[in-house]
Every structure is written in structure tokens, then in C-alpha cells.
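Q: What would this chain look like folded?
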Amino acid sequence: MEEKQFYQNIQKALENLPENFSILEERIEIEVQMKYFEFSKTIRGRDTSEECFENREQLFDAGIDIDRKKEILSAIATVDDVKAYRTIEAFVKENEGELKQWSVLAMQESRMLIQSSLLDEQQVFISTGLGGKGKKLRYYVVFINNIQHKILNNTQQKLLRDELIYELKGSNGEFESMDYMEGFSTALVMLPIQTEIKKVFQNVVDECNQYGNFLEDDMIVTNVKVMSRGEIIQLLHQNRNPNFDELEEE
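A: My prediction, written as C-alpha cells:
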């Protein structure tokens, strides 16, 4: 499945990871992140950081439009001044939605700039759609049932949950949540960034299948977003999984 390439790409990206890196903890849509970084490139080209820094109080003016606020956030995130960081930090606390996500990215960029300056050392910033905590990334995992039209029974559910928690504990990971539905089970977990994620989840499947062979070897793992039932089924169809040819997306 395409997940094999995902695992390979993750491991390759981590090979030369320096000791000093920061993980974006918040869950921020990948589309918003892409817009932010593209917009930031444009802002840097305009060289408006000084002007925006002088007018940073406009962020808290209800009469200022969203695009101007985005410009100020992106611009002052490049200013090596604690006042810039504190301004963005205060703005984050007062907003919701896409503008808050935008300001969180700006705050992270500002923090990294200040840290690099203080430590005289380049910092690495890692961001994913699902975020993380400390040195751990959050993953969304889909364990696929061997029987298409059934939810795992209570015994199987407990076994899957217990085996997952056991494997996570052995890898210094964290269990967050788990859901069971017709055709598959999903989980949110966190694992240290340099963990061999394929090995962790494959161990879970292998251990569970000693007691009834109720899970497929293939699985879905992503750190981009929590997938809907329809998205999961569509992905399984794309990978030509015969067990899910007739499963409804709902």
C-alpha cells in the first residue's frame, strides 16, 4: 500500500535530524500551513517587517481586515524582538478558526527565531497536520478488519486496545483514543519522532492475530489529519482492497 512509501519518507527525513528541534503541538490543517508559508515568502519579499512591527497593535483592532492581520502576523514573526513574540502570543489567546491557526504558526516561527538568536544555533521546526507534544508526533492509525461487514467483538476490541497500549509503552509513546466501527478500528497515538512506526503497529497486528487472525496486515497511518469514514473507505478502494468493495461510506 501507499503507506510503505509514507514510512520510508518519514524515516529518510529523520536520518539527519539535529538534536535541537521543535514540534508544532497544535493541530493545524495542512492547507492552512501551506498558505501561511507561501504568504510569508511574499511578505518577506515586500520587506514590510519594520512597518508592521510599528503598527502591530492593529492586530487587536476589530476594524482591521483579516488579510492585513495576516500580513502583520507573518511580517513581525521575522522580527528578532521579544515584543513581536509577546504580541503574537497575546493575539493567539483572543482568536479562533483559521486566523488563530495562522497566528499559532507565526508564534512558532517567532519563537524559533528568538531561540536561534539566543543560542546562536539554527533551530529546526517540524509541523504536521496532527501536531504533537515535546519530541513526539501524533499519528492517526486505521487497523483494518479481516471481516468487512462487522465491528470487532468486545474481546477483540479489548485485545487490540491492550496490545496497542503495550506497544506504545515500550516505545515511550502515548495512547490518546480509540474508536471501533464496521470494517476497521481507528486510534490516535503519539510516538517519539525517531520511532520505527511501521514496526510498532505491525507488532500490534501480529500479536492480535495470534488470537483469531481478525486483522489485516495492511493498515493506514498518517500524521496529516483525522480521516472521515468516507475518506478511509475511499483510500481502501483506491488500493484495491477486495474486502471493502461493497462497504458503504455513509
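The beta strands are 21-23, 124-126, 132-133, 136-145, 174-181, 184-192, 215-222.
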